[in-house]
Structures are given as C-alpha cells and as structure tokens.
Specification:
alpha/beta, Rossmann fold, four-stranded parallel beta sheet, 5 helices, 22% strand
Length: 98
C-alpha cells in the first residue's frame, strides 16, 4: 500500500525523503480534489494531509472517513505551525455522526 502526503512544498519534501509519494498543492480545493481521486485507488493505504489546508474542508474529510475506512486520512500540522490541542472525542463524534 502507498503512503501519499498532500500539502505545501516543505510539507511534502519531508515525506518524500522518507520514501512516501508527495503531491504539492497550494489551495484547500486542490487538496480535496486529489483526496477524492486517491480514495478511489485501492493501492493507497494512507493519505497524510497538511492541517493548514484540511481545516478548510474537515467536514468533507469526515464524510469521506465515515464512508471509506481505507485509505486512512490523517491530518498533520505543517512544519512551521504551533501545536494545537485536539479534542479527539469531539472529532470521533463528528466522524460517527453522533
């Protein structure tokens, strides 16, 4: 299974060094278009998305996650971002629609 990172040039560069495929995007809409294509590919097991882009379309991501458990879509902060506190319970409730 393939691992694919989606984000800015610096975000993607680190994953490419680790052997993952990377897709450079500059807008949230562009990132969502690539994600919609990648979830249809059975060879893709993990999609890592830059959080600064994904926060713009998190609702759509949660809908995709609820419908398709594979590939796993994981959001990570970009290299220059400050860490955010994440409420995993709220995120889980949103994904499950509770």
């Amino acid at each position: 299974m393939q691992v694919i990172a989606i984000g800015s040039k610096t975000f993607v560069a680190g994953f490419r060094l680790a052997g993952a495929r990377g897709i450079e995007v500059s807008t949230p809409q562009e990132a969502l278009q690539h994600i919609n294509k990648l979830v249809q590919d059975p060879e893709v097991g993990l999609i890592i998305v830059s959080e600064d882009l994904s926060e713009q379309f998190r609702q759509q991501l949660n809908e995709i996650r609820a419908k398709k458990p594979v590939p796993l879509i994981y959001e990570l902060p970009p290299p220059i971002a400050k860490p955010k506190r994440i409420d995993y319970r709220a995120m889980l409730r949103e994904v499950l629609g509770v």
